[in-house]
Amino acid sequence: MEGEPLSALCTPALVVDVDKVKRNAKRMMERCHQLGVQLRPHMKTHKTLECADIMTGGSRRCIVVSTLAEATFYADHGFDDILYAYSLPFDKVERCAALSERLDLFQVLLDHPDALERLRKRPLKGGRRWHVWLKLDCGNGRAGVLHSEPEALQLAQAVAEADGVELTGVYAHCGNTYNCKGVEQIQAVAQETTSFTLQFMEKLKAVGISCKSSIGSTPSCSHPVSDMGKLSEVHPGNYVFYDVQQSMIGSCGLEDVAVRVLTRVVGHCPHRNQLLVDCGWTGISLDGAGKLPTGYAMIEGHPDLKLLSMTQEHGRVEPISGPLDYSKYPIGSLLTLIPYHSCAAAAMHPVYHVHSEGRLMGKWTPTRGW
């Protein structure tokens, strides 16, 4: 299908504009270079080799993953310096050990003393040490030990002092930037997370501990504050695709969004003033419910249409107001959906169709599972 137009694809299909991907990746690299901070891109959005090569500039080094399936996939294809940025799951310690013993640098994350104890009870072979990042909660309210609690410093000290373990760094995710609207709000959260992290690094320094520091989210790294240059690393991921959600937050413009889901009209329902399309929730996910006036996605070129609801394999589309002109949407015609959340939409697809200026160039196949 190489060289053919997007209309040659069967639907639903996830399509990736490789020129936008490269531009988004290049801008993030340049931003980090100007800040003087190491970019450790997150693979969770796309989970493909091709996009990972673009994000790492071909180095195949210094990446973040969210699953061990991703870690193994990248390790199997020559990637190294991999950070598994998920609080250590006790059922997966042996798999983490295998990667730690195999790669030059495989790193794990923890936020509880019991996790450290698990690592101590599984010493690595060949005199290797576990490389551990401490997960801090700097206001995001998900995983991590709260930055201001004495337990955070105590856990960092315990990691630093444990046999067979090295405190490699301190890691914080400023996911609370996803509640922001506009650059000013994004930068306020980025500043707060950076300040809390740097304050914690000073506490470590006062007790003789030196290690790396890293924060990240796509909004904060799309509009970084200068103090982020005092960190060792940043770890955004979604920026390579972006999505409607990021455009609403203020991370990007809609013109930066590199992914679309193509769908076809499969039914006319004049008694309901609706169209049926062949993209259900298995083609784009249910993420974004109630967030957009246009429903679960934006329908490109048709701001008057709304993706009202979806079942597994069908989507219901209706006008925001007035009657539908069915002559504009014949059975079999294509509609293009801009996803609310590209990570979720991509996760629905076993293959991504890559194009440049609307001409197909090939396929990217993501890894799946945990």
From TrEMBL:
Keywords: Lyase, Metal-binding, Pyridoxal phosphate, Zinc. It is an enzyme of class 4 (lyase). Residues 258-356 form the D-serine dehydratase-like domain. InterPro entries: Ala_racemase_N, D-amino_acid_metab_enzyme, D-ser_dehydrat-like_dom, D-ser_dehydrat-like_sf, PLP-binding_barrel. The keyword Metal-binding applies. GO terms for molecular function: D-serine ammonia-lyase activity; metal ion binding. GO terms for biological process: D-serine catabolic process. SMART domains: D-ser_dehydrat. Its cofactor is pyridoxal 5'-phosphate; Zn(2+). PANTHER family: D-SERINE DEHYDRATASE (PTHR28004:SF2), ZGC:162816-RELATED (PTHR28004). This is D-serine dehydratase.
